[in-house]
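Troubleshooting entry. Yesterday's outputs looked truncated, so today I'm pasting the complete records for two proteins to confirm everything comes through intact. If either block looks cut off, that's the bug. Protein one:
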Amino acid sequence: MQTTSAIGPSAALAGFAERVSFDEIPTEVLERARIHILDGLGLAVASTVFPYAKPTLTAVQELSGGAGCTVIGQAFRAAPRDAAMANGVLIHGLDYDDTHLEAIVHPTAAVLPAVLAVAEDRGLSGREALAAFCIGMEVCIRLGAAVKGGFHHTGFHATGVLAHFSSAIAAGRLMGANARQHVDAFGIAASTASGVQVFLEEGAWTKRLHPGWAAAGGITAATLARHGFVGPTRALEGRFGLFDTHLHEHAKVVDPSFLTEGLGDRWMMADTALKPYPVCHFIHGAADAALALQAEIAGAEIASVDILLPQDTLKIVAEPIEHKRNARNEYEAKFSAPFVVASTLLRGRFGLSDLTEEAIADPAVQALARRCSCHADPKSLFPEYFSGGVKVTLADGRVLSQHVPVNSGAGDKKMTLDETTEKFLQNTALAIPEAQAMRIRQAVIDLEHLELADLSAVLRGGAA
């Protein structure tokens, strides 16, 4: 199924989306797909008890009129695009969802909301939904890998941008689109794709909206294309196309081979990492290192901490340093390497409970965060892995250090179904009984043999 680089990227991805059958998707890819769907749904359930959920869900009810598709964890329903928007916010809201490290995107949040809404709306099978999910994941990841982190350098949230395209492809696949219609949908998506990173300045909620808005945009693009609306055929690489307008000088490093070669033979989505910590994935290697040092420190007074991070991630999680040393809310804390490392060193863990208002305001954590400095990691394996290191200087003069080349949840440390189930149950316990959570889990595991409506029913609280 190898394609040639002579084919343009939009046409290559469109052809891939049209022709790949469920039976051609490798078993191990489908296994990983179910794991990632389970993780995403668990996060969505947990999100329903956090402050951003109520305004989102109330607005969706007002916008939609309360009929149509499932909103995770809710009794009311919404029109497909509105349900997809709400579910995108819920899946990505905790920033605890998966990341493809090389692509620097959250692919499940970029695909699953559109798949759930369109497959339910059209009465499709679990097999059809799984195939569309895998195809959308692959498209999102290959686009992210091709741009080599360029969106982050120019102030865009890569997931917010690329989810428009992956949602359009997944939705179009479920609608039975042909390759030309996929190309048109890509062209339409290029005019809606955005997601600026200004939320980093003050911990605003807009990052949570990006994949949900993209799901609504992708469904819109796919529907317009299916009805004959004409989009540009070179939405990515054309003059004033996505690469030109969104990447600026970074467009020169785009590697289009990711978009044309090996489609259907090599599935990059199988390398996607799940998060063991509910913080920006860029910090995970350093968090691993801090956790490894915590027992050795054994409560001794810490004079200072040096944190090693991948060079290209410093502007997101370490700059401006005085701002990062003084996180004051959940979102600032999630994107602060000083806060995450300080909290982990002191508490020997980092979970959702460490992002409450009380935990963030803890004077001991705040004081230690102000004694943290961040530096580029000369041994980093980024972007393949989010390596990290920590050097702790104790008040008694001892220096302790730890470096983690491969962050937990990635590579040969990839989370298994059992490990993902443990995380899933910890998250869902915030909102629903374990028996209901296990019904969701079983529906995901059996999805290939169910209708999508069966999964939707347990997500609303019913039994499959």
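Protein two, checking that the full record survives here as well:
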Amino acid sequence: MIFDSYEAFRAANFAAKVCILGSGPAGTTIARKLGAAGIPVVVLEAGSREFSDDSQDFYRGVTVGDPYFDLDITRLRFMGGSSNHWAGWCRVLDSQDFEPKAWAPDTGWPISRAEIEPYLPEVQDMLELPDFRPDVPISDDIRWVQLIKSPAVRFGEKFADELDRSRNVAVVLSTYATELTGDGKRVTGAKLWSNGQNAGSFIADYFIVCTGGLENSRLLLWSNQRSNGGVVPKATALGRYWMEHPTFEGGNAILADYSEFEVDATNEAFFSPTLAAMERLEIMNFGIRLIETPYPGIKSVIADLACTVPEMAEWVLSQNLRCAAQLYVAWEQAPLASNQIRLSKTDVDHAGVPRIELHWKKSELERRTLLEGLRLFGKTLVRKDLGRVRIADWLASGGDYPTNEELAGHHHMGGTRMGTDVTKSVVDANSKVHGMDNLYVGGSSVFCTSGECNPTTTIVALACRLGDHLGKLIRV
């Protein structure tokens, strides 16, 4: 059932055992799992069925540190959440992404990749994906990887009819929790705001926060402040270890034959490092996106090489090459406690909730990962006699990051990370908030590390796992 207002929902006398906050990929997935298990669940969606400027205004905030997107642009606040601007790129975090890295503090998950693999067939069905293919070694250092571009499923569109027909799931639009109340052991209720006004309180047996990789921290920080620690009693890490995928054009390549590389339907190929290479160089994971350059651009690259790297230009001309590619790199950001979400002390939204102040900076490890990753890829091309890489001037010379490129992936991870150490994590291996009996968190905010790939596939897999766990735990 889908209700356009909280008043309509109340009139229906729907008795929910579980309250999910947010209807994005995580919230919708968990709701479908619980509904299928016969558990009555209500999903509170802050937005309506469509985009609106008024709704987006609640997402305004500021970023302190490196240049970043406006916070009301980098996510969406209506049914289906940020799946509404998802590009559809799919890959699951690598097995090595779940393991600790000795050279990068605070890495490692309390679960392994194997624990989400049973849910991948379900994820593939939801995201309309073919089977994932194994990675292909190109050298001891570099592997070809598959990044599938799905039809970019909009969760609010794809599952609307199913949810509307459901007897066990109620979706309430234009309604959200401004804060949760708690006694240090349980969430005792949620204070609601619906269609522009205070809507009172709501009580359920279980609460699952799925409001996104920024809002999850905001809601819990505010709730904890208001309840004097009654919602997240072990809050040292709350809002901290926030991560993105920095994304820049790192250079270009002259190739012997573009057909040597397996490309996808849009003529692009993707490469990542082996674990051995990461360990040797002490860098994070990264993904190189190879995009063929049109012929006029090839001549420009060769001319530039003749001036700056004569020996490389000689090789190029001796091969009579006619193929070049741009090298876009997105890479893993190491988890740092200093990268964090804070509550503004001066600015609040229409409901009186403090807006977000995002503190975010890239570290030297990220810079080294980008530079050494491109060098690694270049050495592989040389050893295989497949081509030559030219690293961008700003990167090779130690210059500033460009401000006129992608900047990052719109991937919001961390803030309520999963772990066993309560001083460095917010939820346990089952996504339950430490010290709380009935509060869970879904979405990429529970990520301990970011890997190099787009997060949606892993988000949905973790949501399937959480939904399955709760379905077995909760008695109807």
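Both blocks look complete. Sanity check on protein two: The mean pLDDT is 92.
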